[in-house]
User: Fold this.
Amino acid sequence: MNTVEAAQIYRKAFRRVFGVEPNDYELAFGLAQSHLESSWGKGWKEPCANSNNWGAVHSYKSDGKRCAYGEASPDGSYGAYMAVYDTPEDGAADFIKIAYARRLKVRKAAAQGDWHSAVVELYAPPRYFTGTACKIRGENRCLEIDHVENVRSYESAILARLYGPTKTIVADLGIKAPRTVKSSSNVSLIAIGAGLLLAGALALRNR
Assistant:
C-alpha cells in the first residue's frame, strides 16, 4: 500500500469517526503514527499478519477478533493480543477513535502541525496508551506505546515518516510543511531538515 492509497482509506475512516475531513496536518500525523505502529494494517508476523490493525491496538476481551502476538526483546519477552479487523477502513477508524477522539489534545496539536506537542500529549496522563490502564478501566481496545520508548524517540520515528528517510508522507501528499515545528531533540531537527530537502528535490523532479 502506498501513501496515496493509505490516505484514501484514512480519510474515509476519519469521516466515520468525526463526520468531517481531516486537514492536511491531521492526515499526515495520523498516517505517520499508523505506519509506525503497524505499517498501515499490514501488521506483524503470523498469526497477526494483515490484521488490518492500523495502530497496534490491543484487545483485552476474547471476542474472536484478535490474534496472539509475541516477540523477544533485550529485556525479556513481550506478548499481547492484537485486535483484528475485517477491513482496512474498520481498523483505521478504530485507531482514530482511540488515538484522537479519546485524546482531543492530540488531535488539536496534530491539526496545527505541532508534531512535538501531539507526541507529548500521546504520553500525557491519563495513559490511554498503556495496557495496564486499559485493563483497570475495563476497556476492550487500547493502544500501547512500547515501554522502552519515550517522547524523543517516538517523535523522531514520527518525523522519519513525515519527512524521510523511512517514508516521505509530507512530500507524497504535496502537503506544505508547517512553518514552526517544535522538537525535543537535535535528531528531530536534523530529520526535519533532511526531510525538507528531500521533499524539495521530489517536488522539482515531479515538475
Q: What stands out?
A: DSSP finds nine helices and six strands in the chain. Confidence is low (pLDDT under 50) at residues 128-133, 183-207.
